[in-house]
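Possible race condition, two jobs.
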Amino acid sequence: MTSESETPSNEALKKGIHRDVLGSAVIGPFRVAIPIVGYLFLVPFIQQTAGLAVLGIWAQMRSLYELLSMGDVGFSIMLSREAGRDRSPEEREAAKRDFNASVRFFFTLLIAFQVLIFTFGGWVMNEGLDWDAHYNADALLYSLSIFVTAVIVQMISMLYTSILAARNDAIFVNAVAGFMPLFPIIGTAVGVDMGYVLEGFAIGALIGSIVRVVVYRSRVVVKHGEWHNTPGHLPLRETYSHIADFMKRSWRFYSLTIGTILNEPVFRYTMGVVIGAEAVGIYAIAHHVISAIRMFITAGLNTLMPGLAVFHRTNQRAEAIQLMRMSEILLIAAASLLYGAVILGGDYLYALWLKPEHVPEGIAIVTFYIAFWYLITTHNVPFWRYMQASGNEGAIASCLWLHTGGILLLIPASNFVNFTIEGMLIWWMAFGLLSQAFFFTTTERRLNCVIETVRHPSLLTLLPALWAFMFVGLGFSLFYGSSFPAPSIVIDWERFAVAALLFAAYGAVVAWVLFPYGKDLVERFRARKARA
């Protein structure tokens, strides 16, 4: 048995990675369940109790998380790649210094943001946004200060999660993360009931962030003493020169992060400029549904990149290919079944959620385009992680920025083309497909892994069935008039029977593909139980 002070063998690393990836894939989706359910509960609760304007302020404050998270200039994702269990003592010391420098950098950000808030925050919120017309000005200021503190503390907690993920302990991360959103949700609910919506939200978020840091740090100390006891002393006077060096090494990750955060909001902004707010509203409703499905599917793959990084560093190419292939099969199976359900019965979903009279006309075709696009990008997730793991994050950032640049071209193009929402989505997908072609070509050229991963009976069976199912599903939806304007929650049993047959036929293919993998897992479990 390998002691913690020694570098684990390749076999021990392999078992740890596979166990962590599989466990995270099972637990991961549940970490997004509470935020999704909480959001669906809080929106009508706030609107009916505090009013639409307060709901808007709350939503805008929530959106600050993504904006402020850009302060993590690639530090956390860089650590998840560089702090693995396979690293030498010298490499661990270097990563520990990076960790300590990152913590100090985030505390500096916290001080800077607090100065900005108390210097300019009141003017921006009250004069610029006119929030004080709907909420107490002092309460706004202090709520914003508390929430920004919560976000920075959560960014520090992400450094600890990166260490845990790098050391194949992401199952614990996912299990804990699933319950952490309860703090801001409960805080908001209590605040709404007491008449202090934003204060309750901010305090709940801060308590949740502090709990995250305490729990994750305790896990590192108790379970990963090798990392915790690694010397990483960094004199205070050297902090900012070290941060500058760390930024030089992580700027490609930062470019990728910024591109990921901005891509979808840029498209919304462009749509608003070219078509108008109503089109943005239709897109936002459909996108919320499909992105929630994507979050649910991919949430368990946060440990995939650290595991692939270990395989890449230790020259275990066959293991990396196998891990990507298994991830690809599971992702495609889950994504296609869930997206297929939305395509085949999206009008019922929207009618139940929004009420039939509030469902926008034409949302079905918008839903299909968005589902189609996200299904394409689901294909690239394992390869995306492998490119990051192998130090090729700059290339995938270029792919992302290519897509964003194509979206911005919609604005000048609108001077010559009278775009509809469908036309904009086709343009969006065209440039997306171009960026995807560039991505897969670059990945194959640099890592020679795409064809080898896909060239397997499981995927060669699943992929054609998948796209046949998607296009038949689109034809089905159009044939049965799933484009509104008159959605109903009354079930059309003929339509339901045809949809059930389509779903069952494709589900049988998915089950046949997954059966050998499930059988193998059962045999491994029985063997482990027998040894125990």
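Job #2 (started ~2 s after job #1):
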Amino acid sequence: MLKNISPWFAGRASEFWFLLLAIGFVSEGHRKIRGMDLVFDAPQVVSLLGGFLALFFLLELLRSSLKSRPRVFLAVNLFLFVLYLVLGFYHHHTRQSFDFALIVDNWKLLLGGTAWGNVGDLAGAIFQPQDYRFSLVVLVIFAFFLRKDLRAFPRMKIWPGSLSLGLCLLVATVNLFLLDYTTDEFSNLAASVRARLIDRQNFIQRQYVVRSKEIFPFMRDIGLAGQGAKAPPNILLVLVESFNANFVEVRSASGREITPVYNRLIRQGRYYEQFYGAAVQTSDGQFAALCGLLPRFRGKAMTNDPDKSFLCAPEVLRRQGYRTFFSHAYPHPTFDNTQGFLTKNGIEEMRLFSDCQGADQKLCWGWGLADDVFFQRAVGYLSKTMRPGHPFLAVLSTISSHMSFEDVPPDFRLINENPVSRRDHYENAIHYADRALGILMEEIKTSPFAGNTVVLITGDHSFPLGEHGNFHNENYAYEESYRTPMLILDLRKSPREERLGGRYSQLGIPATLLDLAGLKKVHAPFLLDSLYLPPPKMTYHIQPYAGTYLAVAQDGLKYIFWEGRRKEFLYDLKNDPLESLNVIDQYRGTEILEQLRAGIGRIYQNQDLIRMDRIWPQEPPPPASRRN
């Protein structure tokens, strides 16, 4: 019997080593998953086996297709092995399977003008130093088995190609349509495909999505508080890259203030102690902060909906005589269609202050122009190009604190001189960004528009730094993925500290810009009112990856719907701010849970209305009126 089995195993040693590695990675990662209630129950075991069978039958299909070209097959096998090794380390460090939607939504990033640098940053975000040593060992073992398989190839038993193809299709069908979301990469690929091809009629969509009979149901009179003056002020909105509020007003392990400039500025303005972004990526943050709508959780509005009709705050202000200006320190304005989208939706001028080429190379590091130089050039340009009687809205989006945070030059590593962890690197990066904010305020004070300007400083989004063992912003929907600082400095008034409690949202920024401009009545499709009014009843949050998490918070409770597994989570933020205990079972059948589920329905409605181009009418609305 062994003689009959031996030829079948001959030539498959590398294949079984491959499967052993996959099983080890998935099992270890599955055991460490946080916040998702994953256990090795029967459905999960079946789902995991489905992923391994998909991998096995894929290799068998390739083997039968390339039986006359063994070297080509073994090269393909090596490629898949390396790919799974990378996915395995991602899985190991993030405690989450890789969502292939990341590639779909961000493929231009990998092919852009700084492609190699972007790939290097992504690799740095996935691999730790010890991972390279482990990879070298397993690759040497794999190469040994590949050489052994090559010698055994002529005498091995190969399944008929039709049988391999049939089994591949069978397992793929089961994975795609029948298996639940799992931690295995291949099954997760099927789940990613399923999430984007199949309209899941889950209970949230069936029962709670508002199917409004109005063509444009988001159009309404926006709540404004009356913050304007006879002379409309200049407005400067600063979006700091990856600004996590948990690092404001705290000290590092060495006792140093991480954000001393921002801490000092808080004592001079209106600070929102609980302020939250809507999503986890820059273009989504820009969309929310300027257009007052939730970003899409499948695709991106700037790239997927460039021709849809939006009424963003810059367009309203432009019609009121404001000059509208945008600049990003990232040197590629076409990435995520930022330039195309914003110039279509009210930004009159978009300008770069460096392409990071030539003499400017020394002023660029990481993903673009250093924040301090960026601010100096931006304020200098606005000062030179001011037009009497034309106030401006200027939106400045920084880049120095962009992931993966390791690119801060040694001379500016002022918090952790010899950083080791991702948190160490982040503290250095956000401290540098904070230092640049000090330079920005000094530049503004000496500018010709200093006496009539309001400055808003917030984050484009937050970034988790290990608060729940997570260091990747494409995973989960915990507070640290969204909580970012928000400060309004009205330079027309004497400095005065004002701290606001309550949970405020990035979606309130557009109405706030109109409020500051002195408008008293605006009919627009913004979801939330001005930040000068009491906090909204509910805030909304999008996590488009890791199986898609949609979250809402109200009355101290935070509800999360995990679309990938159709699971619900509820956290009592008052008594459990670290979100450690899922109390959903205690609230079943209550009115508050129904309200929170309806909030998720609102997120689905937002997605549907954007997709159907039902945000605002094509014809221009009546002009907004200004306060006398």
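DSSP finds 19 helices and 18 strands in the chain.
Logs attached separately.
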